[in-house]
Design a protein that fits this description.
With about 140 residues, the chain is α+β, with helices and mostly antiparallel strands. It has one domain: HIT family, subunit A. Helix content is about 30%, strand content about 20%. The protein has three helices and five strands, in the order H-E-E-E-H-E-E-H. The protein has a five-stranded antiparallel sheet with strand order 1-2-3-5-4, covered by helices on one side. A hairpin with a 3-residue loop joins strand 1 and strand 2. The radius of gyration is 18 Å and the shape is globular. The protein binds adenosine monophosphate. The site of adenosine monophosphate (AMP) has 11 residues, from loops.
Length: about 140
C-alpha cells in the first residue's frame, strides 16, 4: 500500500515531520520513539503503509527483523544496555496507537521498570490446552 496522507509514520517517512533517524534504506526507516520506555527506544518502520503485520508483504518481514537486531546491538554497545525487548503491538486491543506497522526495540537495563505488568494465566486442564492447540493447528493447515 502506498504511503497515506494522515499517518504520522508516513509523514515521517516523507520528511514532513522530523525524527531522530537511526537507519534508512529503500524499504525501512528506523528512528527513536518520541516517548521512550528507556533511553534509545527505537522504532523500525516499513516504508509501506499497512495497519497489520499480517498484510505487510513478506519481503519486509526479514528486513524489519534484520534491522531490529542491528539496532539492538548498537543500543547495547552505545547505551551499555544488557538486553532488549522486541515488541510489535498489532491491533488496538494489543495497544497499537499508530496504525502503521512498527517494531519497538527497547533497550533494557538491570533493575529498570517492568514494561509488561500483566500476570500470566493458567489453562484449566491439559485437555483444554491440547484442544486450543488442535484448533489453531487445524486453521493453519487449511
Ligand atoms: P504503538 O502503541 O505500538 O502504536 O506505538 C506507537 C509509538 O509511536 C509510541 O511509543 C509513540 O511514542 C511513538 N510515536 C508517536 N508519534 C511519534 C513521533 N512523531 N516520533 C517518534 N515516535 C512517535
Amino acid at each position: 500500500m502506498p504511503l497515506v496522507e494522515d499517518c504520522v509514520f508516513c509523514k515521517i517517512i516523507r520528511g514532513e515531520i522530523p525524527c531522530s533517524k537511526l537507519y534508512e534504506d529503500d524499504q525501512i526507516l528506523a528512528f527513536l520513539d518520541i516517548a521512550p520506555f528507556n533511553n534509545g527506544h527505537a522504532l523500525i518502520v516499513p516504508k509501506d503503509h499497512h495497519h497489520s503485520i499480517t498484510t505487510l508483504p513478506a519481503e519486509f518481514h526479514a528486513k524489519i527483523m534484520e534491522t531490529a537486531c542491528k539496532v539492538a546491538v548498537a543500543q547495547m554497545r552505545v547505551l551499555k544496555a544488557e538486553g532488549f525487548n522486541l515488541v510489535l503491538n498489532n491491533g488496538r486491543c494489543a495497544g497499537q496507537e499508530v496504525p502503521h506497522v512498527h517494531l519497538h526495540v527497547i533497550p533494557r537495563f538491570v533493575d529498570d521498570q517492568p514494561i509488561f505488568k500483566a500476570s500470566k494465566k493458567k489453562y484449566d486442564s491439559i485437555e483444554e490446552m491440547q484442544k486450543t492447540a488442535e484448533n489453531i493447528r487445524a486453521k493453519l493447515s487449511e
